[in-house]
Amino acid sequence: MDKMIVHGGSLLQGEVTMSGSKNSALPILAATLLTREPCIIEHVPDLSDIHYMLTILNMLGSEVERASGIVKVRATHLRTEAPYDIVRKMRASVCILGPLLGREHAATVSLPGGCVIGDRPIDLHLRGFEELGATVQVKGGDIHLLASHLHGTTIHLRGKYGPTVLGTGNIMMAAVLAEGTTVIEGAATEPEVTDLAEVLIKMGARIHGSGTSRIIIEGVRELHGFRHTIIPDRIEAGTFLIAAAMAGKKVTLHRVIPQHLEALLHVLEEAGVPLKIKKESITITASPSLKALSIETLPFPGFATDLQAQLSAMLCTTQGVSTITEHVFPQRFMHLAELKRMGANIELDGARATIIGVDQLSGAPVMASDLRASAALVLAALRADGPTEINRVYHIDRGYEGIDRKLNKLGAKIQRIQE
Ligand code: EPZ
Fold it and tell me: What is the pTM of this model?
């Protein structure tokens, strides 16, 4: 298992280009199962989660080719079963359910296991499939979906914690080949859902209203191949913006879509960070001192839960008292215990963390627990006194393409040790 040693204290400076979005690429790769024709996807990030998805597609019978960010997939013949061994490695593998059901009217996929960011049910996905006409059975750890035909209907997808991102994608992918019109009420409005809808439209689907909470899908008989470039990763960009706000002199991010980052940009401005926003780039310059903040995570366009851990790291050394309330995954606070090992002053009460800024964090051996928690530890380590040893960095490789390489290019001192 690799680990990283981060030597804190360097100031970040320079330019860095963002990769394609992991959370956009995963369901779009799954969408290739909807057609026999070849599909070409560009700007696919080189990440272990993407590798798992390509392995799953391959196991289902797709021919997969990959070269420098371009992935070609052709799903001429399909199997409809994905076994536990591979599915357990990545929760996002549930997004093959929708396309398998849509095209083959059958799917057997292992139920994903527990997840460190909290209980992650898929009840809304399954209810949606049932409403489209599938029978759903959970047996022996597997989800079995079967339908004689799928029919359009109105599906309410909003759950206790808001809309579901992968659930919206899954239902869209099943409904595009259903008979008649499906209306998704309470749909997720995340840019990754819109990117998937754009791909489905390129394939010949009839979809209106993506990006709003009401998506209308008129079923078609057949879908075609497509060529698509994945949108830039807004969470990677957000992570670099927070890193620059904490430990930067002047950093420019290229290949970003500022509209996807509005909530974070607003928060950074409120903290006193000077920003220069252009069409596809953002420049951030050092602020002599940051202001304390009160943040609540919310579905898009609210402040993203996937940036909560990184912002927590920033607030650890921001003078004053800040609060963070997590509404999307109320238990997503594993990183706080590790930040406390580095000297942070944090109190957690249910889904609300109170962070009292300290002058300095100190390097310590810490453990990465999930993807964004690991990123938060890297950011905290950049601001810490002395070296921080981050163990289990495979978590970070699931979702950040060369984060150590990119940060080192900006002047950080991060060593990766292969064990
Ligand atoms: C997606 O997960 C992302 N994953 C997550 O990114 C992200 O944190 C999350 O959306 C929220 O933005 C991918 O896109 C691959 P949800 P998803 O269904 O779709 C509850 C990262 O770090 N819920 O929108 O699985 C759920 O428990 C990650 O890159 C139900 O109750 O999340 C949560 O409280 C991790 N029943 C809320 O809804 C359901 O059937 C939102 O979850 C489904 C979800």
Answer: 0.97
d(CA 327, ligand 1 centre) in Å: 12
Q: For the segment 143-202, what is each residue's pLDDT rounded down to a tens digit?
A: 999 999 999 999 999 999 999 999 999 999 999 999 999 999 999 999 999 999 999 999
How far is Cα 41 from Cα 49, in angstroms, rounded to an integer? Answer: 16
Ligand 1 contacts (CB < 6 A) are 23, 26, 92, 120-125, 159-162, 164-167, 188, 192, 305-306, 328-329, 371-372, 399
**Dist. CA 164 → ligand 1 center (Å):** 6
Q: With H, G, I as helix, E, B as strand and everything else as coil, classify residue 392.
A: coil
Contact 387, 10 (CB under 8 A): no
> Cα separation of 181 and 323, whole Å?
44
CATH number for 3-18+232-417 (one of 3.40.190.10, 3.90.850.10, 3.40.50.2300, 3.65.10.10): it is 3.65.10.10
Q: What is the pLDDT of residues 217-252, one digit of tens each?
A: 999 999 999 999 999 999 999 999 999 999 999 999
CATH of domain 22-229: 3.65.10.10
